[in-house]
């Protein structure tokens, strides 16, 4: 039997090196796969203890200032406007002359009326003298009864004519006085609507300017029906309390963030809703002795005096948003956390009211909540004392940006912002 000789093929040096490298690494790979996973690192967090306490709340809303007396300065008579005697935009005093109309036609009309009065007074004197002569003759039957009646009638007609003529004189005097147009109050003047030399009439173009009283100043805001119902329900549920007689204190934050020095109070609430906007008007009044506030300014009105009894307030950063609801991490006795669904209310500065879901004494994660997983061990690096939250309440109450409240009778309420439409 013939056999085919097998010839051995020598391996190339490169192939030999590759085989040797694989053989050397195989034990290392096997060891790496068999190594146990490293222990999980505990998340470092800070926690605080939940407390319940009576918490003052402020309600802030957008508002607009309005002059407490906005007076139209008008011409009461027809005539030419001689000159404007005030400086536009400056403060004017009560009784200060603002416009002067041409007096000459009215002076002439007054002279005519006085002349007519003098004529009627003369006729009255004649009628009185005639009656004085007729009465004794009629008593002696020297004149007829008709003559006496005529004399009496003439005297009465003359007296009535004098009264009418006196009325014409008084009217002419009034019209002459109306040519000097004065300010009826202390206030800030507007620009002139008519210029010198213009012919003005009392019916068509009689508006000359405005004067705005600056002290006191009104501040208006509006409250929506939904907000009214919301706060009314909270009051009924005992989660919100208003001061007695709705005696709120109102502060103003100006456009530059500064606080207006004077405190105000609510003096009027319109009982009827505006059918176009679904809101009703609330008005606060402020002393404005230095004229700091001007009509038409947009300001932030902050209402103080409300209280949330036994409220739960936690830092906003402790509350997380889940797929369906808000939640916090509650730390158990074993230093492990579990999710707790909560019902949130209004913001109070950098904190959040919790309406439901937390109990007093529970500990929750504040900082580091994003690194926490359920039932994983935690490393508590700092525990904020409960007194810190209590102190923060007072600070937050002065810096809050929540919503104006609604009362069972018209009062302040609105959430976030309102406008002169309140917040």
TrEMBL record:
Main location: other
Family: Belongs to the membrane fusion protein (MFP) (TC 8.A.1) family.
Compartments it resides in: Cell envelope
Name of the protein this chain belongs to: Efflux RND transporter periplasmic adaptor subunit
Compositionally biased spans, kind Low complexity: 386-414
Keyword presence, Iron: no
Provenance organism: Paraburkholderia antibiotica
Any Pfam family the entry gives: HH_MFP_RND
